[in-house]
Amino acid sequence: xxxxxxSVAATLxxxxxxxxxxxxxxxxxxxxxxxxxxxxxATAPDSGPAQALPPLEIAxxxxxxxxxxxxxxLAGKDIDTPVEPAxxxxxxxxxxxxxxxxxxxxxxxxRLPVSERAWKxxxxxxxxxxKMQVAVEDLIKGMIVxxxxxATVALAExxxxxxxxxxxxxxxxARALGMKSTRYANPEGLTAPGHLTxxxxxxxxxxxxxxxxxxxxxxxxxxxxxxxxxxxANDTNRNLLLLRDxxxxxxxxxxxxxxxxxxxxxxxxxxxxVGSRRMLSIVLGAANENARAxxxxxxxxxxxxxxxxxxxxxxxxxVVSPEVWKGTQPRAKLxxxxxxxxxxxxxxxxxxxxxxxxxxxLVAPLARGQAIATLKVSLGxxxxxxxxxxxxxxxxxxxxxxxxxxxxxxxxx
Length: 413
What we know:
This protein is an alpha+beta fold. Helices cover 31% and strands 23% of the residues.
């Protein structure tokens, strides 16, 4: 008798728990609450321009404007057309040099020999020779400020052992960064068969350079430098915007007869309620030195004035909290460790719409940082941004009984 009563009680308890779980399964997830503060912008650099504005008139073969803070393309023309990069090639050379310093393969104070090959390089020069042993930091300044081909080759040999090996490293790094249309034939940028890139790839490289090596970005803001004993007239950075616009702090110029005059420029300006907002402009194939500076300035100013940035969600704020099955927690918090921003034409913030696309059901375990869903942002009916949402707090897998109950819930569902 007692055994029968216990069996009935256990059955009733199980049915009661099952009813609770079913009710829980039918409870809707809480709606996201966007951050209220307004700021400045965001779509990914591989997305199309996010503007419903009149096209810009930029006197260059191709150009691209990216809001780095929002990670969003604002304008562009022929951004996937292969072009010669000229001395913009040195951005990749610098990337590898900075990486070698960061990984302690070389040191800023280390002195490198100057080979005959480096000494005899044509074009822009730092004016070093084989009698010298030059510190890595001075070679970096010579490569960036003076665009010295001799300094660039000395660094390439110091990091790679040979120019040829270094070029292989350049192409390996380009592939690793996702620069799908770039092929390097040398470290300095002189015209060579197959030595090509695109505005889009340059934006990837420049963005990663600033992101991965912030401690070295200051070299690009140096206005004047020359190595002791070299010509005094060879001391001025060729990026004229450094002398014209105090918000500009980089990055690199380039010029060959085939490439025309090129400039990758970046600026950082402060805005109320937003803080610092960084832009990146890329102008390729301008007519002369002044033209590349003027057109770059036009792009930067237009980006800052024609677009506003809106903060959709704070860092680590849950955009959605969907239900999780077979986990130790009933819900997962999905968001981003950094604020989610979007750039829109000035005055159009009220037209922003958001939608979350995610798999259903979500089954534990879920790891912190695991990409689960996508925040789709549009301006009216125009798509602007697909932003990945990741797990903010891990959800371990439940025990055997918890997984069993959720298996029943999923079957009933």
